[in-house]
Every structure is written in C-alpha cells, then in structure tokens.
Queue: 2 jobs
Job 1
Amino acid sequence: MTTMERPLFSVKGLTKYFDGIRAVDSFSFDVTEGSITGIIGPNGAGKTTVFNIVTGIYRPTCGEVLFRGENISGQRPDRIVRKGIARTFQNIRLFNRRSCLDNVITPLFQRERCGFLGSLLGTPGARKMERDLYERAFGLLKDLGLEKFASMQANTLPYGLQRKLEIARALATDPALLLLDEPAAGMNPEETRSLANLIAEVREKFKVTILLIEHHMDLVMNICSPIVVMNFGTLLARGTPDEVRENPDVVAAYLGNRKERK
Ligand SMILES: Nc1ncnc2c1ncn2[C@@H]1O[C@H](COP(=O)(O)OP(=O)(O)OP(=O)(O)O)[C@@H](O)[C@H]1O
Ligand SMILES: [Mg+2]
C-alpha cells in the first residue's frame, strides 16, 4: 500500500474489557485524511471508550491504533496530543473558573514550552511571544464565534457554547485529527444545524480530519461520510449516510427504535 492510499488513522482489532464487560470487541475501521467520519450507535455501544483508548486514557486489552502508520496504542495522552490528535469530551472538561481566553491560551503555551523561562524573565522576545499567543487564542475564539465571551468565566457560558470552547481549545494544539464526542449534546435543532456548518468550516479552515460521535442524526447524516455504526463494542456497519440509513441491521439495532436526543 502506498502512502497516498494509507488511511490517516485506523484501529485494528481494538478490544477493551472492563471487569468482564466487553466495552470494545475486535473493532476495526479506517479514517481517510480530510474526511468527517461519524461514529453512531446505541448508548453503551463503546464509542467513547474508543476515543479514550485512542487518546491514551485507557490501554486497550488488545489491538492497535495506527496514526500515520505508527502504532500509538498505550502511549501517554500528552504524547498523543503532540503527535496531532486532539479531542473534546462528552462530559465537558474545561478550566471552569478561568476565562474562555485562558482556556484556549493554556494549550498554546504548552506547545511553546521553550519560552517559559523567558516569560518569567520578561525578555522582549518572551513578551512578543506572549502577545502572539494571545492573538492566536483570540483568533481561535473568533473562528468559533466566541470572541465576545473571551473574558467570561468558562462555566458561566451555556453548555452549547462551552462545547464550542472545547473545540477551540482542541484546535489550539494544532491537530491533524480532531475527535469530537457528542459536540451537539444539549443543543436545539437550530443550534445543531449551525454547529454542523461550523464543523464543516473548521475542517476546511484548519485542514483537519474529523471523527465525531453523535446521537443527533440530522447532524451526522448532513456532514459525515462515511458513518461507522457500533453495537455491543463491535462494528455493525460502515457506509455513506444513505447506505447506513437503509441498512436493516442498523435500523433494527439503533435507528428504528430511538428518539432524537436533545
Ligand atoms: N471506566 C469504565 N469502567 C467500567 N466500565 C466502563 C468504563 N467506561 C465504560 N464502561 C462501560 O463500557 C461500555 C461502553 O461505554 P461507552 O461510554 O464507551 O459507550 P458509548 O457508546 O459512548 O455510550 P453513550 O452513547 O451513552 O455515550 C458501557 O457498558 C460502559 O458502562
Ligand atoms: Mg459516549
């Protein structure tokens, strides 16, 4: 297989047991560079566990996580971020009492660790770097439509905006692959539509490949292709939105008996 054909990211035979529960079970799929790939499936199907393994929170029981052809499974979360994988969380994880700008600037500072001593010493170079970082952080807030909230404490924002702030924070690490875990959770249909447009814009502007978990089918069907369907930790189906929508196994396991979550 040539580099051109190689997927940006894949998992192979990924398996995770928790005390006898098979959360993820011999799960394999590929993500093509530049795609917005969706992961759907019933509650407890193992979707978030896949993200937790990919980002180094859990070690897999067995299987591989390949990023640009390298097996990164079992590496530490900070190394995985530096390799170019960033994520948002199903249960939002922000620095709650810090401003929105601080939440985005922290990962930018971490990337430029070398400037830390200079910044303590207040050298002109360090001051310039600090100004640049603030500008970049503000730019990211602007890209996500959050600039007017820059100085507000993160936990005072409505949940929908906190989810956008998490995307801004993830983008600050300059990822090649962005993992979004239920970015539209808690959003109404109009907010969900506008988030779908925003995610598509983010993909273009930041040249980032996106893998997203969602229960809002309107968002998934509009912007994701392919869509990967998980059930009981395994791969139930993979295909275009139309293929997945018409797949009888997917309808039986998930689409047929679910209510749209808000
Ligand atoms: N740390 C853990 N310890 C024990 N069991 C866990 C742990 N994390 C996940 N599980 C179990 O693994 C299974 C898969 O959970 P996971 O959170 O990955 O599902 P999900 O597809 O993201 O569901 P949802 O759509 O509700 O977010 C569930 O049975 C869950 O209870
Ligand atoms: Mg989940």
Note: Residues 197 and 223 are 8 Å apart (CA to CA).
Job 2
Amino acid sequence: MSTPRLIGIASGKGGVGKTALAVGLAQALARTGRRVLLADGDLGLANIDVQLGLAVRHDLMAVLAGNVTLREAALAQSEGFDVLPGRSGSGGLAALDPGWIGRFLAVLRCAPHDEVVLDIGAGLDPVPRRLSAGCDTLLVLATDEPTSLTDAYAVLKLLTRDAPGADARVVVNLATDAGQGARTHAALDRACRGFLGRGVALGGVVRRDPQMRDAIRHQVPLLTRHPGSNAAQDIEALAARLAASRAAA
Ligand SMILES: Nc1ncnc2c1ncn2[C@@H]1O[C@H](COP(=O)(O)OP(=O)(O)OP(=O)(O)O)[C@@H](O)[C@H]1O
Ligand SMILES: [Mg+2]
C-alpha cells in the first residue's frame, strides 16, 4: 500500500485563511477522486471541527494516547473526505510527551488515504516548525500585508534549514485578483532568491471572496455552499495542480 502525500498548510501569521483553505482543498482534492484525510494540526486553537460544525467524539489526543485508532477517530464527511479533529474540548495538550510530533506524523503516514491535508497552526514555534518540516509539500499562505509576507518568509527560511530541498509553494490568499497575487508571490520569491539562495514556487492565488465567510458562518464547506464562487474556483485550480504534480511524480 502506498503512503499518502502529506500536504501541510502553514503561514507564520495567524488568521490568513489556513483552516478555510485546508477545508476547501480537502473537498476539492476529494472531488478529483483522491481519498483525502483532513487533519487538524493546530492543537492550541484547533478549529476545523468548528468550521465544519462537527460533533467530535474522539480527537487526535485520543489517537496519540493509543485509546482509539485513526479509523475510529476520523469522521467521514458527506463531501467525500475524512476529518481527524484536533480536539474534543477536553484539553490534554499539556499532557503530551515530547515524542508526540513524530508519532503524529507516523500516524498520518499510515493513513489509508492518498492525500493528507494538514492544517498547521500559526507561528514559528517548534510544533508548527517540525510539522512543516515533516510534510511532503508545504503550502505557505501569505497575503499582501507586510506582516504576513514577513512571517511567510520566516517560515520559508526555517524550512530551508530544517528540510533543505523541501517542496514549498506559496499560496496567496485574500488577493484582489490574479495579478496582485502574482506580485505578492514575486516579492516573496525575490526575498528567497536574495537571502536563501533559492526561489519559491507559486502554488496558487485565492481571491478574497465574501462567500468564504458565508460558508464558514454556516459551517458548510465552500464548494458545497458556493460552488462556482471565485474562491471555490481558485481552490479547485490549486487542487488540480496538486493532483497533477502527484500524478507526474
Ligand atoms: N479567500 C477568502 N476570502 C474572504 N475571506 C476569507 C478568505 N480566506 C479566509 N477568509 C476569512 O478569514 C478569516 C480567517 O480564516 P481562517 O480561520 O481560515 O484563518 P487561519 O489562518 O486558519 O487562522 P488561525 O491562524 O487563527 O488558525 C475567516 O473569517 C475567513 O472567513
Ligand atoms: Mg486556523
């Protein structure tokens, strides 16, 4: 059995749309026929369950503690993907031993799926940093705000140290249009070429779209609630490129 590809979604700066993209991408990849697991790696502020309105019975902590299997904890969605929630409201983060990140990545690698989409928490702390370095493909989310760009650059810089040669791609979110997204990517690419000696690819551009907020407010995945919306089209294009790059690998 082949192991799934781990697609991490990181950003540095918080609140730039990681969870929204993770949910949309999981759904879009599932629509291309892939078996997809959406995993919540943002343990401090896990909220995939909130964005999808899920009633969580078993969470990641229970899996890591060995109380339940991944299969028992994963919740099958009617949209065709599974979700491994990050929390059930019982806390437990503090109780984790230092080896948990390695175990978490190992659990994900054994998932019976083609793709694992991992929502990685914001910041540059050891947890998001190690999860980022453990992925096969890392999508680094940025917006055109200077703080977001600086933090996305910092993620890429640490990744260059932790996992040289990693497949990192920038996704520009909340873009006014494709041109602005391309310019934002170009700025990051220039900084990476100048200071890290290696550029960074553009994974995709997702436009700012009020339908995204609406979908989250109603706890329904974007492609279900607003198929054909700008953000849905952009996320589907991103998923198609990811599926194609996997097929070519
Ligand atoms: N393309 C978009 N268009 C419009 N609004 C968006 C878009 N992407 C995300 N948002 C909005 O941005 C807000 C933050 O999104 P989200 O919670 O996914 O960010 P995050 O990076 O996961 O945050 P955190 O770092 O706190 O985990 C949400 O209110 C969401 O509706
Ligand atoms: Mg989030």
Note: The chain has a mean pLDDT of 93.
